[in-house]
């Protein structure tokens, strides 16, 4: 508690909605970076973009239980507030950190009416039933509370960015800014879930990531990219001992299936050692 109070004085940490409203009331140019903690260089890059673009920047840390379709996944999600604060306090010009409790986010107990459209029940939405309804609900609540001018989100969770951007920009006078995926020196996309691996497992995940990235170049001369990916899927599963949920090439504008190299991305979700990872390239 003493550690948290000491950091609070330095960093303007906001722990409830009453303080949030009083603190943010005078400001109308807030950049917002929503996180679930496990702060890494990817989050830091989002924060730095917000600081350059807005007069004030707020980072939230909230592990939202309503976007988890698997209780085990929720309970195992890496969470270390003390470590997150240690990292965040080193960022110059970061104004506010909002660490709400469940009751703060869901103070309006009205049941969400948000539904994902049938055409959007693809990729992660197909395999994580209710996940994006939970994401859109919490982003709706956070946006209503914080009233930011811009929201900054990474492109690693591309489908999440796509759905949040369409939903938030349609409902609020706010821009949702998609930012480039940050990777480590071995080309692995930074993710809080990477903290769940030991060093040997992380090395293997890096090899898997490099293999998927190399696929992108190989599809330049392929006529039917998705047929090629489906044929390759079982070989990749056997070779790396992974379970692939989806491996698909889709248009980046509307996420429809595409067999063209241009204006598309390969999207993948797979399990390694029981941990689910996603990427796009």
**What is the residue-averaged pLDDT?**
95
Whole-number count of domains: 2
Largest sheet: 6 strands, parallel
> Helices and strands: which structural class?
alpha/beta
CATH class of the largest domain: Alpha Beta
Secondary-structure element order, N to C: HEHEHEHHEHHHEHEHHEEE
The count of DSSP E runs of length 2 or more, i.e. the number of strands, is: 9
Helix content: 40-55%
Strand order of the largest sheet: 1-4-3-2-5-6
| Overall body shape | globular
How does CATH name the architecture of the largest domain?
3-Layer(aba) Sandwich
CATH superfamily of the largest domain: HUPs
The CATH topology of the largest domain corresponds to Rossmann fold
The share of residues in extended strands comes to 15-25%
Uncertain spans: 5-9
Q: Distance N terminus to C terminus?
A: 42 Å
Calculate Rg over CA atoms.
19 Å
**How many helices does DSSP assign?**
11
Q: What this model shows, in words?
A:
- This protein is an alpha/beta fold and 281 residues long.
- It has 2 domains: 178 residues, 3-Layer(aba) Sandwich (Rossmann fold); 89 residues, Pantoate-beta-alanine ligase, C-terminal domain (Pantoate--beta-alanine Ligase, Chain: A,domain 2), CATH 3.30.1300.
- 43% of the residues lie in helices and 18% in strands.
- The chain has 11 helices and 9 strands.
- Helix 3 links the parallel strand 2 and strand 3.
- Helix 8 crosses helix 9.
- The longest helix is centred in the last third of the chain and has 20 residues.
């Amino acid at each position: 508690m003493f550690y948290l109070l000491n950091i609070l004085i330095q960093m303007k940490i906001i722990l409830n909605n009453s303080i949030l409203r009083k603190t943010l009331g005078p400001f109308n140019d807030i950049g917002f970076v929503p996180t679930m903690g496990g702060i890494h260089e990817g989050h830091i890059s989002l924060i730095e973009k917000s600081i350059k673009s807005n007069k004030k920047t707020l980072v939230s840390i909230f592990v939202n239980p309503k976007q988890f379709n698997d209780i085990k996944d929720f309970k195992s999600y890496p969470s270390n507030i003390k470590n997150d604060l240690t990292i965040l306090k080193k960022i110059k010009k970061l104004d506010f950190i909002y660490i709400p409790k469940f009751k703060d986010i869901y103070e309006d107990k009205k049941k969400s009416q948000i539904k994902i459209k049938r055409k959007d029940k693809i990729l992660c939405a197909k395999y994580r039933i209710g996940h994006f309804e939970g994401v859109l609900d919490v982003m709706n609540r956070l946006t209503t509370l914080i009233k930011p001018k811009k929201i900054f989100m990474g492109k690693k969770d591309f489908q999440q960015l796509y759905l949040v951007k369409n939903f938030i920009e349609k409902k609020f006078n706010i821009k949702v800014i998609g930012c480039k995926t940050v990777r480590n020196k071995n080309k692995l996309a930074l993710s809080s879930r990477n903290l769940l691996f030991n060093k040997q497992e992380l090395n293997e995940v890096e090899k898997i990531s490099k293999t998927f990235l190399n696929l992108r170049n190989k599809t330049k001369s392929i006529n039917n990219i998705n047929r090629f990916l489906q044929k390759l899927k079982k070989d990749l599963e056997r070779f790396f001992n992974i379970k692939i949920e989806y491996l698909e090439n889709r248009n980046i504008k509307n996420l429809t299936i595409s067999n063209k190299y241009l204006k598309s991305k390969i999207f993948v979700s797979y399990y390694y050692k029981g941990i689910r990872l996603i990427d796009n390239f």
